Known about the structure:
Elements: H1 4-22, H2 28-57, H3 63-70, H4 74-86, E1 90-91, E2 98-99, H5 101-124, H6 132-139, H7 145-154, E3 180-181, E4 190-196, H8 201-209, E5 217-223, E6 228-232, E7 235-239, H9 241-245, E8 247-251, E9 274-279, H10 285-293, E10 301-307, E11 314-318, E12 321-325, H11 327-330, E13 333-337, H12 341-346
Helix pairs in contact: 2-5, 3-4, 5-6, 5-7, 5-10
Amino acid sequence: xxxxxxxxxxxxxxxxxxxxxxxxxxxxxxxxxxxxxxxxxxxxxxxxxxxxxxxxxxxxxxxxxxxxxxxxxxxxxxxxxxxxxxxxxxxxxxxxxxxxxxxxxxxxxxxxxxxxxxxxxxxxxxxxxxxxxxxxxxxxxxxxxxxxxxxxxxxxxxxxxxxxxxxxxxxxxxxxxxxxxxxxxxxxxxxxxxxxxxxxxxxxxxxxxxxxxxxxxxxxxxxxxxxxxxxxxxxxxxxxxxxxxxxxxxxxxxxxxxxxxxxxxxxxxxxxxxxxxxxxxxxxxxxxxxxxxxxxxxxxxxxxxxxxxxxxxxxxxxxxxxxxxxxxxxxxxxxxxxxxxxxxxxx
Length: 347
């Protein structure tokens, strides 16, 4: 005969386990179901973004490319496309899957959140450049549309992310993609870097370590099927075809030289007043935040006043305060000459 105390204890234990497993919201089973739903929503959003990226870059979107991007089987990718079609977000009646108008708006919302978060990481944190993309991939699925707009306002509604990609507006507007890869520019031309592809991460880190950033200018010295050789003011180096295709550029006017780059604060002689145009794209993270906090924003007038015995740092008059900057910091500040009213009238 079963001991009543033992039976009561077993019942109590079973009751506790049931509560632990099935309690609404905090129970184990509801948590598993909720996580499964979140995981499925993330896959849907990632699939939309993949179709959008393929359309934007003129590449075919296939079951294989979708499966590879999401790291799922082609069968699961087919089921996912069927679900997107049933939701009215994707059309599959053509050769390749294509976004509907609703699907494109949803994809642009995800892209907007991703690029704003990368801009935030670049401008307001010390997170290394190689980690921006992965962190933004996570956050793009967690911010609500309202939180995204708060972030945009906090950042001053930036137009581009730190890789040079345009940030979609809240209304889904995006400029057309007209630039080309470094691999496709003929020798002898000067180009300006407009975008660095952030995947794969290892390749992106290598490009950044070579000093490349949106806004950098390069002269194409030579181009072949195996390499592209470039130079700027710091020297010459080569890119293999894979790396070159991850660098998007805009060809400058024929005859324009690398030396035509903007003037920076480190080249201004003592006593000469100049006006800040902006900060170079290479200035990111906490360094960028610090310079902005010091008042080095567009329109600020600045004058080198005192030079240390070693020549570095230099004390600058910035809005009535003397602030010392190292030459490396001054090289991040793009400036222009201040033209007096008398000079403008004489002109």
